């Protein structure tokens, strides 16, 4: 089983924190979709005929596409790939795009999961971030999608935002759980170099959340969602029982995936590939049959490091028998030796052959994973 990720790079305007590849050149959508479908054709053998169990349209803002765009994409996918009848098919959407007409249009396509970028319900912070929706629009869009028949909805939240307090984060979480989404992704704001947000901090116009506040916000997140029945199945992801993102989980469980579109990444078990981060170059190179991606062949130690980073971060943890089988006795013993201090400190636990983070360990997960990586 494998997955396909499709990057839709178009945005009406960029949020001040975003460093994903995106563009406001909406006039190039038709040319882009045609090039995207060519890439899907050119790379149809990348997954070696494996059945597709997840398709994910991310961005950018996939909800900037029209029905004719989706029709062209799905016709191409079904013509070229063996797609499971039970495939999870996700689209990311902005609340302000989800009008009655647009939601009803989405229901004519095989989308069975919707990921809504809300980020916060605080009006002043939404305006600061240059989000296009209001809190009320977000709630109404969610209800509209429910009414239209979407039974698997994820919402994205952010914390550590400028001016955020424990009280405003509590209000955001209270609003979020009242909507009863099947899935919640919650990410700490990162000040990425080169973004507008980075520049505002450098100019002392916004202030980054300090470590104590960040820890308190994360603690509040974990406990609040647990109280409402959400499983903390990955560091930044929570779901009602059984409703985890199958697509994202494929990244963490080592499944193959094909990424199409500018800046999209692919993985086939032995190498990683990533596409050029330019809409114009992508369209030109795909159309001309030129190489538009770079390749990194993965040696044993790189694959071991990937295995550590992807498995330890989930509630399923690292299966030690798989570690030993795939990477040999040397790396198996090395991993256990590097994990031992964290086992002694109670930040890792080992049970039934599975190594995983404890709740205490989740707070220092980056350091734990770093300690377990192989370094030449």
Can you put this structure into words, describing what you see?
The protein is α/β, with parallel strands linked by helices. The protein has two domains: 2-251, TIM Barrel; 300-372, Orthogonal Bundle (Arc Repressor Mutant, subunit A), CATH 1.10.10.920. Helix content is 43%, strand content 22%. It is built from 14 helices and 15 strands. The chain has helices at residues 29-42, 67-80, 100-106, 123-129, 135-147, 166-179, 196-202, 211-227, 246-252, 279-287, 300-312, 320-345, 359-362, 365-372; strands spanning 2-8, 52-59, 83-93, 113-119, 153-159, 183-188, 231-234, 237-239, 256-260, 265-267, 271-275, 293-297, 318-319, 348-351, 354-357. A nine-stranded mixed β-sheet has the order 7-8-6-5-4-3-2-1-9, sandwiched between helices. Strands 10-11-12 form a three-stranded antiparallel β-sheet, with no helix packed on it. The protein has a three-stranded antiparallel β-sheet with strand order 13-15-14. The protein is globular. The mean pLDDT is 95.
